[in-house]
Amino acid sequence: MSDLVLELNNLQTHFFTDSGEVPAVDGVSIKVHKGEVVGIVGESGCGKSVTSLSVMQLVPTPPGKIVGGEINFKGENLVNTSEKRMKKIRGNEISMIFQEPMTSLNPLFTIGNQLREAIRIHQKINKREARSKAIDMLRIVGIPRADAVIDEYPHQLSGGMRQRVMIAMAMSCNPELLIADEPTTALDVTIQAQILDLMRNLNDEKDTAILLITHDLGVVAEICDRVVVMYSGQVVEEGTTREILKDPKHPYSKGLIKSLPKIHEREQKLYSIPGTVPKPKMGRVGCRFAPRCEFAFDRCFQEDPELYSIENDRLSRCFLYDQKEGDRTENAEANIGS
Amino acid sequence: MQKPILEVSGLKKYFEIKGGVFGKKVGEVKAVDGISFSVMEGEILGIVGESGCGKSTAGKSILRLIEPSAGEVKFENKDITNLSAEEMRKLRRNMQIIFQDPYASLNPRHTVEKIIGEPLQIHGMSSAKERKERVKELLEVVGLSAYHASRYPHQFSGGQRQRIGIARALANNPKLIICDEPVSALDVSVQSQILNLMEELRDEFNLTYVFIAHDLSVVKHISDRVGVMYLGRMVELTDKDKLYDDPKHPYTQALLSAVPLPDPDIAKDRIILKGDVPSPSNPPAGCAFHTRCPHAMDICSKVRPEFEEIEDNHFVACHLYGEVQ
Ligand SMILES: Nc1ncnc2c1ncn2[C@@H]1O[C@H](COP(=O)(O)OP(=O)(O)OP(=O)(O)O)[C@@H](O)[C@H]1O
Ligand SMILES: Nc1ncnc2c1ncn2[C@@H]1O[C@H](COP(=O)(O)OP(=O)(O)O)[C@@H](O)[C@H]1O
Ligand code: SF4
Ligand code: SF4
Ligand SMILES: [Mg+2]
Ligand SMILES: [Mg+2]
Prior knowledge:
- The complex is a heterodimer.
- Chain A is an alpha/beta fold.
- Chain A has helices at about 50-55, 85-90, 110-120, 125-140, 145-150, 160-175, 190-205, 215-225, 240-245, 250-260, 300, 325-335; strands spanning about 5-15, 20-35, 35-40, 65-75, 75, 95, 175-180, 210-215, 225-230, 235-240, 310, 315.
- In chain B, the strands form 2 sheets. Chain B has an 8-stranded mixed beta sheet with strand order 6-7-8-3-9-10-12-11, sandwiched between helices.
- The model of chain B has no long low-confidence stretch (mean pLDDT about 90).
- One magnesium ion binds near residues 48 and 182 of chain A.
- Chain B: Keywords: ATP-binding, Nucleotide-binding, Transport.
């Protein structure tokens, strides 16, 4: 398909630590098309950030290393691309927003300095024009006192303002892909609403594809078209936002959604998944979720489930969706959610 | 259950900002700027608000872990603001606190037994054997096992550490627990385990909670009544259903409308507020919310609205509902 912007193909990123090899990203495949907003959700440590750092070739090496798979960006495999080429891609063709914007803004330069540079890479205009364009951009993302803020340094701004500056940068670069790793996690809900609004505009107006990493299913519902659920280094489920939130198939996604307190409902007791998220480790056999899964059966502890296709683009890494399991699937479908 | 266990009135905490070579006072942060509310016995009172609005400072000032600048706090009808340190220490067995960060709030060099046993010893349980028994009992109450007693905090997950914090708070059978964001650092699947545990414990031991959080869905789930804070002030307080179904204060309305819901079928009219929260070292005059309020009127920048009961059991601080419109 020609409108494919990013395709991760069986990506494996491991860390080689003193206590052994950690398969943080353990065979992840994800597609992002032009104009699409794809969410990656999952609990802490499941490999969301390492996946996004891998795309940008920013995994700390050592101890980290991409040990397998491909990252195709518009047909070009980014794994092992030269740093020179990556420098061109980063910030221009792919922009990235992190949870803590301080890490992506240079503390030594003013906001205006950094924004002007970004603008001038893309447009042949002089410094003064770039400055007034930069002030416009700051106004567009809702920064008060834009003409003063432009001469301030990143530490002088609040978290929400820094995140807005990052979005202004991303917008001026007109990237094909924006990777946002928990962009609103550190922000208050009223500020989060502003930032999500800006990201939605960027997507609407410029058709920018967005890969949004979050653990917040509310944020997913706000802005994503499609969702990938990760658990312990693997993709366990994929579908449209509506499918995942309204009719999750994988026992983990089901449990996760049921565990959320709902603002419009009155539950006596919350559902909870027993146990805790396991750290990824080498040489595991069987479904990663089996020790916590209420539907686990013998096979789950003996073999690794693949991503079974349920319908169209719906995938679930669970034996219950293996045709071979016939009856069991129906029974589980009837029981899950009760 | 209509007996108040805690009554807070006009509570203030100002932090001094010092500057210059001589460390002279150059200003003050009005972290908590005159809040009043009561908590009934057996109730869970939720307090929500955005970062920096003074929730934690309020919680700590109530327990006098930091000294309030003004106001009165009554616990079981007794004014505790002027108690001596010794009297306060005794009283604290009845009033406990659980912190947000299960990583930072436990001493990494102490075993779980020592961590949970310490408050027991402080409050007079001198027999080591008795303490050991009680620690074991408490670990089981919070869903851990007796063998965990000899381990250190770093050997536990975030959720388990929060359980240890809860066990420590429960050690001396307190009546009131101030819970400062007890589940904010936890993953969703672990968060629901801890919320359920806290509710069970409330029922079992007839506890009263002041439950501080910024997640509005969590607060809705666990609380009986909810108070909303903005820039050091309480702007609205009522039953949780009233608050969520019919918010009166413009800030509460905006806050609720900004919460992203994990349900694609709920259409929302979002009120997107402009700008950032002002600094508590220089709060706007009059109503602190007037710089961002979609309904602001002339009076709002001049006169601070009173926190008044505008309907039965529904308190709001806003000129839209006051007499002086
Ligand atoms: N020891 C201190 N000295 C000076 N200012 C302080 C101190 N402690 C808190 N503050 C300030 O008081 C205000 C309220 O802080 P507080 O920690 O109570 O907020 P909070 O509502 O608990 O926020 P969060 O949701 O981020 O935990 C903030 O502006 C904070 O910076
Ligand atoms: N620099 C590192 N060294 C060793 N292990 C790491 C490093 N960064 C991440 N990991 C491990 O990789 C896994 C996935 O981490 P991450 O992608 O950050 O999770 P999240 O889904 O919360 O973003 C975790 O088990 C984490 O401990
Ligand atoms: S494969 Fe088995 S253990 Fe894994 S999610 Fe499916 S039923 Fe549960
Ligand atoms: S008092 Fe005025 S500014 Fe404050 S919330 Fe009410 S209407 Fe808005
Ligand atoms: Mg992360
Ligand atoms: Mg706090």
